[in-house]
């Protein structure tokens, strides 16, 4: 068929192009194709270039031209805008006819910069293929490497380049650093070894299968959420294989269930840290809130049922035993209006799943899972049992369906650091940490700050209890360290009495001075009370599509330190002054000048670090001697915890659940 036969198609595409020009002009945007030479300016020839050979690239990522010579022949959507009688129009229709009669096979030539493609040769071929809604085109690609900077887009791009080495596809895109690593680990694949071709195609096919269903449910998308971001939300609950094994209606149903999670993840400020108990009385919730959504009245005949899942047993774990005391306290505190039950030894996915299923069948209104490694199964259960409230003991795991809670432990560590410094005479203190997870790094640094306030020359020698074959006692003794911040709880297994801040005296006997004091009963009471008053479900942060993290501290009465009678009354006075300052906010461990091992964090006039900065610390104070361990060096249980909430592995969630 001759080219003239396709002139009507050209005219329709030209109309589409002119509409795009007018719309862009009305919105104050550039109406024509961007030219890469103009975007980069003089630096275009200074940047490194790499030839990628012939690649199949997504057409929706082809956005402009290499030079400005042809940019005014096309609208910003690559549709033609020159009049029908021009030579350009005749050539365009010839390309269109060739595609319809034979099919375009010659690859275009283009440059890739920051995951966008700019055409050197083949602009009309791209225009025609876009007009025909083709998904991709073969292209000879030359990659232009941006200069490495702290710019977030540049950081994301270099994360993409690492991903591309193992999985050479372009379509998967994330809006925040760490997305590619999460994606890889959710699939349980290698970050360094190239994937088999079949696996690459599976990942790409799974992406497109998810995209088709998601686009049908959210045709306008969700602002702030890329398709890759949405897929990460799905994969945090369901496996990639489920996209192939399940029918479309099942996948649609799952996506609908995840709606709140999608909107929460789209919110840049998607975690709300609540640091003081909610004091709103029911009468202050507003007339309409009270009238249309009045809280359930719980009584002895209709009690609120709460279930607690522990990763151990109270006979072998002081940590579990302490929380169990808090659970029992709830039963007495609410005198039959609240009934609780405990599930012990929930140590793997199957036992966690079974316990949650049992609690749900027993009519639980709220389920507490008391360890961060329980989060993957907790999240999936929360999506399935959408009428049950789920809380997980962890920090900074941002899920709308599961609220998290923990104490501001760093406040207690600050006090203990000050006390420890008052006991040492050689400027040395040992510090035993457990897991390199969110929150624990702040504990180390707060302890170091508290110690330095008393002794500016003090050094904190850091060891990790979860590093394989690490004899921390021997290491401290080799360095002559006598004052130690040890385990928060004494071990049941080894009959060691080291707990909290202690001193090894001249006979190697342990003298305990202070330890953290958790009031879990008080914490659970505050959370349960908010449910009974109706303020839990009426929380404004929840309505703002934020994940809620309860982060109560000394001022809420949920954390304190227990001080031995052996501590002098002068040191007790000191601790009282510091504690009062923490309660009323006049003392902040992370305000003013802060220096890490690598240099200045903030200067002397700076305000306190934000909640997010405190929780996400991945640096150690300048008076700390030690480092963060790699995940490979940790014990098996610690690796599981780090997978979910680890600082060094960027909140990996590789523990998948299916079935």
Description:
Helix 15 links the parallel strand 9 and strand 10. By secondary structure, the protein is of the alpha/beta class. It has 23 helices and 21 strands. Helix content is 39%, strand content 17%.
What's the short version?
The chain has 659 residues and is α/β, with parallel strands linked by helices. A hairpin with a 2-residue loop joins strand 3 (108-113) and strand 4.
Low-pLDDT stretches: 279-284, 648-659
- First-last Cα distance: 55 Å
Largest sheet report: 7 strands, parallel
Question: Gyration radius, to the nearest Å?
Answer: 30 Å
Structural class: alpha/beta
- Strand neighbour order, sheet with most strands: 6-17-11-10-9-7-8
| Anisotropy-based shape | elongated
The beta-strand count equals 21
The percent of residues in helical segments reads 25-40%
Report the mean per-residue pLDDT as an integer: 89
Secondary-structure blueprint:
Layout: H1 7-26, H2 36-40, E1 49-58, E2 62-65, H3 87-101, E3 108-113, E4 116-121, H4 123-131, E5 136-144, H5 152-166, H6 179-186, H7 197-217, H8 227-235, H9 242-245, H10 248-257, H11 259-266, E6 271-274, H12 287-292, E7 304-309, H13 318-333, E8 338-343, H14 349-361, E9 366-369, H15 375-384, E10 389-393, E11 402-407, H16 409-423, E12 428-433, H17 440-454, E13 459-464, H18 472-478, E14 483-485, E15 501-504, E16 510-518, H19 520-533, H20 540-543, E17 547-552, E18 559-563, H21 569-584, E19 594-596, E20 599-602, H22 611-615, E21 624-625, H23 636-645
Parallel strand pairs: 2-4, 3-5, 6-17, 7-8, 7-9, 9-10, 10-11, 11-17, 12-13, 12-14, 13-21
Antiparallel strand pairs: 1-5, 3-4, 14-15, 15-16, 16-18, 19-20
Helix pairs in contact: 3-4, 5-6, 6-8, 7-8, 7-10, 13-19, 16-17, 16-21
């Amino acid at each position: 068929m001759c080219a003239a036969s396709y002139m009507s198609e050209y005219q329709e595409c030209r109309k589409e192009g002119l509409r795009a020009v007018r719309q862009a002009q009305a919105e104050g945007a550039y109406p024509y194709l961007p030219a890469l030479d103009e975007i980069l300016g003089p630096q275009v020839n200074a940047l490194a270039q790499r030839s990628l050979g012939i690649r199949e690239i997504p057409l929706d990522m082809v956005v402009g031209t290499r030079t400005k010579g042809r940019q005014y022949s096309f609208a910003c959507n690559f549709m033609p805008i020159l009049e029908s009688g021009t030579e350009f129009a005749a050539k365009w229709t010839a390309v269109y006819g060739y595609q319809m009669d034979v099919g375009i096979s010659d690859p275009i030539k283009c440059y890739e910069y920051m995951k966008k493609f700019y055409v050197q040769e083949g602009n009309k071929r791209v225009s025609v293929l876009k007009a025909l809604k083709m998904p991709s085109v073969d292209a000879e690609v030359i990659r232009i490497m941006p200069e490495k900077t702290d710019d977030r887009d540049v950081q994301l791009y270099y994360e993409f380049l690492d991903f591309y080495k193992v999985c050479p596809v372009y379509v998967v895109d994330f809006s925040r650093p760490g997305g590619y690593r999460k994606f890889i680990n959710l699939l349980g694949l290698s970050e360094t070894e190239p994937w088999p071709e079949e696996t690459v195609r599976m990942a790409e096919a799974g992406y497109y299968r998810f995209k088709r269903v998601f686009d049908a449910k959210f045709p306008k998308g969700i602002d702030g959420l890329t398709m890759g971001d949405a897929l990460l939300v799905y994969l945090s609950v369901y496996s990639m294989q489920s996209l192939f094994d399940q029918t479309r209606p099942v996948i649609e149903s799952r996506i609908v269930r995840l709606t709140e999670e999608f909107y929460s993840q789209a919110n840049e400020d998607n975690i709300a840290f609540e640091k003081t108990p909610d004091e709103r009385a029911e009468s202050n919730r507003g007339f309409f809130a009270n009238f249309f959504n009045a809280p359930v009245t719980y009584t002895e005949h209709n009690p609120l049922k709460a279930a607690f899942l522990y990763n151990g047993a109270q006979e072998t774990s002081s940590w579990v035993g302490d929380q169990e005391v808090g659970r029992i306290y709830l039963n007495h505190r609410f005198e039959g209006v609240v009934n609780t039950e405990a599930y012990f030894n929930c140590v793997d996915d199957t036992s966690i799943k079974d316990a949650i299923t049992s609690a749900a069948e027993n009519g639980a209104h709220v389920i507490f899972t008391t360890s961060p490694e329980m989060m993957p199964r907790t999240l999936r259960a929360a999506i399935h049992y959408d009428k049950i409230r789920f809380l997980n003991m962890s920090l900074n795991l941002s899920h709308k369906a599961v609220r998290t809670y923990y104490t501001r432990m760093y406040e207690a560590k600050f006090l203990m650091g000050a006390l420890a410094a008052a006991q040492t005479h050689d400027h040395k203190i040992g510090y035993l940490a457990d897991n390199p997870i969110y929150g624990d790094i702040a504990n180390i640094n707060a302890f170091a700050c508290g110690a330095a306030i008393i002794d500016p020359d003090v050094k904190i020698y850091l060891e990790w209890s979860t590093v394989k074959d690490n004899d921390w006692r021997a290491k401290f003794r080799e360095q002559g360290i006598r004052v130690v911040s040890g385990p928060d709880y004494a071990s049941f297994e080894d009959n060691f009495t080291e707990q909290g801040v202690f001193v090894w005296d001249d006979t190697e006997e342990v003298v305990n001075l202070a330890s953290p004091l958790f009031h879990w009963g008080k914490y659970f009471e505050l959370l349960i009370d908010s449910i009974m008053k109706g303020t839990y479900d009426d929380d404004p942060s929840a309505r703002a599509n934020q994940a809620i993290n309860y982060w109560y501290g000394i001022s809420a009465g949920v954390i304190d330190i227990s001080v031995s009678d052996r501590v002098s009354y002068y040191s007790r006075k000191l601790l009282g002054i510091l504690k009062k300052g923490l309660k009323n906010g006049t003392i902040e461990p992370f305000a003013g000048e802060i220096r890490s091992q690598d240099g200045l964090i903030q200067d002397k006039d700076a305000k306190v670090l934000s909640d997010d900065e405190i929780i996400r610390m991945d640096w150690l104070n300048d008076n700390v001697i030690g480092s963060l361990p790699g995940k490979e060096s940790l014990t098996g249980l610690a690796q599981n915890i780090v997978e979910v909430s680890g600082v060094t592995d960027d909140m990996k969630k590789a523990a998948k659940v299916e079935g």
